[in-house]
Each structure stands twice: as C-alpha cells, then as structure tokens.
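Please review this one:
***
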Amino acid sequence: MKKKDEIKQYTIRNIINYRKLDWSISDEFLYLTDVPEIFEPFEMKPHYFAYGIINSGSITIEVDYQKFLIDERSLLIYRPDQNVKVTKIEAGTKGMFVLFTKKFMDYLFESFFSIAPNSFLKNKFGSKVFLSQEDHSKMNIVCTYTGFFTCFGGRQ
C-alpha cells in the first residue's frame, strides 16, 4: 500500500493524454463508449466522479483497496479522492462510462449537489452495484442519454 501523499491526483485530462483518446470537448467531462485496453498501471486519486456499465467483457478494478470484477451485471461508481487502480481490462470489453468534475456539474446545475445529497455520488453507496438484466438495459439508456445530452445538448 502506498503512502497517501505518493498517490497521484488524476484528472480527466490525464486520462485523455495517457490513453491517447481523441477528445477535445472538455477537460471537465468525458464520455467513453469504447473501453480502451490501454490503462494506467498505477494507483490514482481521481479529481472527478465516474460511473459506467459494461455491455460485454469485464474490468477488474480496486477502489479504496477493495477489488471488484465489473461485468455486464454491474454498475461501476467511483468518486474524487478515492484510491483507484485498474488491474485488468478484458480484451474486447465494451461499455459506456461518464466522467465529470464537480465544476462541470456546478456549471450545468448550479445547485445539483445541494439538492441531491442522497445521490449515488455520495460515499454512502458502494463502488459496485449488481444490476438485473432489466436494470442494466435501463442504465444503458441512461448512459447513452447522459453522454449525448452533455456532449451535444449541454453547455461547454
């Protein structure tokens, strides 16, 4: 286990650069519809919120030193200042992920965090949520809509 001060603070721009993604919309928001097989081999502390689903394949990830296998029955969630390390991405994994900063949400919804104290973005929810097939289908729609809205319908 690394000392807390040795763990790198990580931004959305860091992800874009490290994974060589073609993304110029915002450094405060990232919508991934392809799961890149290139990932950071080190532990990091995100400066953003993230959630997403897998449609096929899997990701093995550690969040606050708990190991999770994220597959098509899971919703992955992690938050700023948690310790995160991706340990494996199965070749050909498909899914959708939304990453955004508090600054981005404040910009879109000035009072979002004051009106949603019980949302999944708070730490009272775990980092893996088991989904039924019906719930997975609904989350697939939500992730698609969220990415579309924020890329094309939201302010930049």
Remarks:
- Strands lie at 8-10, 29-34, 44-46, 49-56, 59-63, 66-70, 74-78, 84-89, 94-100, 128-130.
- The first strand starts at residue 8 and ends at 10.
